[in-house]
Amino acid sequence: MAISPLKAMNGERVVVLIFVLRVLSSLPLALLPHALSLSLLSLFSLVVEIRVDNSPSLFKTRPGASSGIILGAVTLPTVMLSKLIQLSRAVSLQQIEIGELEHMTMQFWAASACSCGVLIFLFIVAWCAANKKNPHFSCSVWDAKFSLSCVILYSAVCCISLATISHTGFNTALKLLWLLCHGFATVKLIQHLLSTFPFCASIGEANLVTSGLVLYFGDMLACTISKVCRLLIPPELVSIRYGIKRSEIGIVIQGVLLGLLIFSAVFKFLIHLWEYFWGANNSESRERKEIWRSLIFLTSLGFIMIAVAPSWMMIVLDFDVHPVPWIFEFIFSEPFKRLSLCIYWLVLIYASVLRFYNISKNSKIERILLRKYYHLLAVLMFLPTLIYQPKFLDLAFGAALAVFLVLEIIRVWRIWPLGQLVHQFMSAFTDHRDSDLIIVSHFSLLLGCALPIWMSSGFNDRPLTPFAGILSLGIGDTMASMVGHKYGVLRWSKTGKKTIEGTAAGITSVLAACSVLLPLLASTGYFLTQPSLSVSAHFDLQKDTGMVTNKSFPTCFHLEAFLKGKKFIY
């Protein structure tokens, strides 16, 4: 018999739906179509998760983890919608141009299309598996009708919304085709990910990763296509515009990541080519072959990162100078502060790695708990830097991500002479979430701290937004794991390991950290460096405190005073 969604609700699903409802309750009327589409996506993902959880094992996912389909499906669209709400306030305050809001609208629909494509794929797979197991299976007919209705209604809302920001019907059709490509690419990528790296991720985690990759690199592709069309086609024949004005640090990070993506494909092609023509000659020693592979690796990496990626940045994104001298100029613009931070990071990393590496080899402490100490290390490293040098931290996160990617390529390909050493070192910190094929724990921690900071660049009228990753991972996740592991009894779901006690500890610790952090930010003058906070504070303080302020006075002082419990009247 059919499973009622209400009867199948568990704590994890309830929390996700409450999170979505909280965002929907903040929407202005202008974003009503987006709210409807997110609601339909949430209901569709709920039905798919229930169906997949009650089907035979469809994919080789991470053991002991819940499928997390609803969480993986709604996270990116909800974050994009939250950013849309913020930008709509910025437009009303005349802080940004309308083009930036339209660009974020396209990003929201692209993220939704990625999730919707994966959900359709999962539902079809679960339907076929159920029918194959029982040819007379008919209990999911209601699910199929409901899901089809959600998809049709979602598509109609998407078309209407895109038509409102498009000048012609051709532009609307072009945007719909672009969204369709996003959904198709995400489905192909998640199939490849789950088959190539079995038991490394849940379905929800794989959906979140693949959607993010398609969204990020799709944005690069769209910028490239737009630039090429403007260069090759006369402007009177076509007028293609895409993207927004990006920060210099954002351009550098995007160029480096694109370069590493190109490098991985080129290096794999060159290795296969080399093995085809010269690999059959067994007269060469193994050591000599490893040296040749290392030379190919270093040569291709250097050429792409020094020549290809900077060329793309300068041509497509109109970056005026080569990024290498720009990076040095940026660092040495404040040499004492930024070099001191680098020394501080290196000392912390060296001491912590040396200490915990020895513990991991000799101690019986569970790896999952041992790795939480690195979460606390992230708080010590990143929190002071975010307060005093936020732009430098942006660049440092990009550099760290690039280094991690290069080291992972070296480890996977066993590039001489570091490949085996890196593999042995990284294996000391792995647990059931990782495998010999790919180790993702350090990427999860780094991106978890970096993404809220990167996504809050530009207009941001919420002071704690950049700190979300550091607080939730460094403090909330650490406390949740420790308390849940030691005292947890009540589980959120039958298949997952998350406990209510751990979740309560995580939420309480983050709230306590926020209550300490806000006065600290006010006392350090953090808000003085955030112009968007100053603008929004003027309106919020007038509404909340009844103060009459002079619009020409820097309203960040009012926010400082408000957080310190004082009233400024000017």
Shape: globular
Terminal residue distance:
69 Å
**Which whole number gives the mean pLDDT?**
81
The largest pleated sheet is described as: none
What series of H and E elements makes up the topology?
HHHHHHHHHHHHHHHHHHHH
Oligomer: single chain
* Helical residues, percent: over 70%
Report the radius of gyration as a whole number of Å: 25 Å
Poorly predicted parts: 236-240, 537-570
Return the domain count: 3
* Continuous helix count: 20
Find the count of extended strands (DSSP E, 2+ residues). 0
Structural class: mainly alpha
Strand content: under 5%
Keywords: Endoplasmic reticulum, Kinase, Membrane, Transferase, Transmembrane, Transmembrane helix
GO biological process, one term: dolichyl monophosphate biosynthetic process
GO molecular function: dolichol kinase activity
Membrane topology: Multi-pass membrane protein
Give the topology, please.
Layout lengths: L10 H14 L7 H22 L15 H24 L5 H36 L7 H24 L4 H28 L6 H30 L15 H30 L8 H31 L6 H9 L3 H28 L4 H4 L1 H17 L1 H24 L5 H9 L13 H15 L12 H20 L12 H25 L6 H15 L10 H8 L7
Helix pairs in contact: 1-2, 1-3, 2-3, 2-4, 2-5, 3-4, 3-7, 4-5, 4-6, 4-7, 5-6, 6-7, 8-9, 8-14, 11-13, 13-14, 13-17, 14-15, 14-16, 16-17, 17-18, 18-20, 19-20
Subcellular location: Endoplasmic reticulum membrane
EC number: 2.7.1.108
Family: Belongs to the polyprenol kinase family.
Question: Which characteristics define this entry?
Answer:
mainly alpha, EC 2.7.1.108, about 575 residues, about 70% helix, transmembrane helix, transmembrane, membrane, 3 domains, transferase
